[in-house]
Amino acid sequence: MDNKIVFDRIRNDINMNDVVLYLKGSAVFPQCGFSAAVVQVFNHLGVAYKDFNVMEDNELREGIKAFADWPTLPQVYVKGEFIGGCDITREMFASGELQALLQEKGIKMSNAA
Amino acid sequence: MTSMAGRIREKLEAAFAPSVLEIEDQSAAHEGHAGARAGGETHFRVRIVSGRFVGLSRLARQRAVYAVLAEEMAGGLHALSVSARAPGEGGL
Question: What is the value of pTM for the model shown?
């Protein structure tokens, strides 16, 4: 399968948006508990993000797994860099590393507590 | 046939010689939604502590676990929550 087109699209999206969430479902209506959990973390921090619902786009759903070399969703990207899925996002949030990373990257948090 | 939990345990023990390995079948909590099947064994949580994780990033640790369980993830293991630590690290 030629992934070039979807990879170019992903690369463009993660470079154009500071924080990108690839989800099962939308941020408003997540269709999976793990996707809901990452949305909750970023909503809690008051960070603006762009979300993509892979359930509406099978090419993206498979392409994003190959792109990150990561077999599961959700996937979180900050400033073009793959951060991880639900477990890693939650761990980094709990330890404060996520907040430190966002701050270091100059991403605004309206509620950093 | 060995249970999914049994296969996960066997493979992780062989690959990582963990000092701690907890495998929790959370399928019942996901009954009736996407990825769940009658009979369960679809949603698992793994907590693993292994010396093999020393010096590896979070991403590298979880990728290593996924790689060892690739066959299971392709065949029925729908969701796998992973906490992978090196000995002496907190947070388990």
Answer: 0.91
